[in-house]
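Figure caption, in words: inputs first, then the predicted bound structure.
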Amino acid sequence: MKRLALTVAFAAFTALPAVACEGIHIHDAYARASTAMSQSGAAFMQIINHGTVDRRLIGARSDIAERVELHTHIEDAAGVMRMVEVEEGFVIPADGEHLLARGGDHIMFLGLTRPMQQGDEITVTLIFEEGDDMDIVIPVDLERMPAAHGDHSHGQSHGHSHGHSHDHSHGHSHN
Ligand SMILES: [Cu+2]
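Bound structure (copper (II) ion present):
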């Protein structure tokens, strides 16, 4: 009987999707659109990799939009900032982080299926190259101001290195 119980416990343990989002944590995520009439919106967050291998975010899905793309801003020849799709995705280095922020890398929602309203929550699935997906629920925050330049990346990584509370969104594997 004892052996049977152990076997069952082991099976239950290995069935957990523990390997799937291992080490990836999302901090401080929010989504916004310019206005309630906007046809597109974006999401920003700090993606932290507590694991020992680099991870790559290669896409995202959400029912909030017809298309979801990974974008960044580049300055074109005329000196104008433009958004472009980043086909290769974003690397989150082992024991490091990647910041999705206003004016930089972001998740772009194109063709909103409903207006983004203050206080709404949207579900976004992050797709990692390693084949595991991670669902996160993020608030729509139309009032948040862009972080002050210079303040921002320093403040965020500093804050994080001094204790990371576990109250942020955790992912759930689909499998
Ligand atoms: Cu964009």
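The pocket of copper (II) ion is lined by residues 42, 71, 83, 106, 108 (CB under 6 Å).
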